[in-house]
Each structure stands twice: as C-alpha cells, then as structure tokens.
Description:
- By secondary structure, the chain is mostly helical.
- It folds into two domains: 10-61, Orthogonal Bundle (Arc Repressor Mutant, subunit A); 80-186, no CATH class.
- Helices cover 70% and strands 0% of the residues.
- It contains nine helices and no strands.
- The protein has helices at 12-26, 33-40, 44-50, 54-77, 83-96, 102-106, 113-136, 141-164, 176-186.
- Helix 4 runs parallel beside helix 7 and helix 7 packs across helix 8.
Amino acid sequence: MYMAEGKRRLSAQDWAQAALAALADGGLAAVAVEPLAARLGTTKGSFYWHYDDRGALVDAALALWEARETDAVIAELDGVEQPAERLRLLFELVLTFPAPDSVALLFRDVDDPRVGAALERVTRRRLAYVVEQLRACGLPEAEATTRATLAYAAYVGWWQLRRIVPDVAPPGAAAGPYAALLQQLVDPR
C-alpha cells in the first residue's frame, strides 16, 4: 500500500485507540468510521484494511479499555508483596487518577450488548481482585465480598460525582483523603 511521504501506515491498534477516545468523548454513537478516519487523517479504506465492520472496531476498543484499565492495573499491583498495600495503592490510584475512568463513561451505553458485556466482565474481574486481596488479608469470603462490593460501588459513584458535580469530588491528588477514608472503611484490620 502506497503511503504519502511523512505519513505512517495506521495499525489496527491506532484505530482501536481512536475508537476508545471517541467512546470516552461521545459514547458509542461517536464510534463512526468516517469521523474517526478524519481524526486519524486517513480514509475509510484504512479502516476496512483492519476491520470487517464497526462492531469489530467497538470490540477492539472495549478490549483495549479492559487491557489498559484493568489488566495493566492488576499486573502492576501484583508486583506489590502485601495484599493490604495492594489495596491501599489501588484505592489511591482509582480515586486520584486525574482523567475519568471509562467505566463511568461507558454506563451511558450499558444497554448495548457489547458495552454491557464488557462492563459486566470488567466489573466482575475487578470485584474478584479486591475480594482476593481481602481474603489474603484474612477475611472470610462473605465479608470480603461485601467489602469489595461496597468499595467498588464507592469507586463507581466517585466517578459519577466527578462528572455531575466535579466540585464535590476533587480531581487528582486532592482526592487523596477520600482514598484514605475508603481504605479505612474496607480495611480488614
């Protein structure tokens, strides 16, 4: 395929990243091939080189979201020796992260089968991870599950507040005290 001088060939990953950005900005409706091609400075032909249809692109964007905002976070936290410290770092990370987690943004499209399935899969994985850490801290399964569910509900609510009334839920480092309090509420000690 001929490429004009100074232009690079786009990959499927480039398209998935652009689709994920569009999904975060404007929801599922914003994942449209022509506007994405314009944003990427290319043609629809580039899209069809990598994907059969828009649905495949949406699936790729959701997989990228899951890999970045769940798989990568868990992998990084697993490098921490103590489960209580993993939880402290997790709560600090998710509440003080300056940009919104797409989980809150994806809720607007939860009725779409692709988005709903991805949200359910990610939510279950995240809950299971927190339960696992609480179990490693010595809590029985039922209590660990209750605390993990409460912590995740607080996390999702935090990002909803950040979208609706941002002055109530401060961004970045200013959210540190909230993360510390969440840790206290969930702490198994």
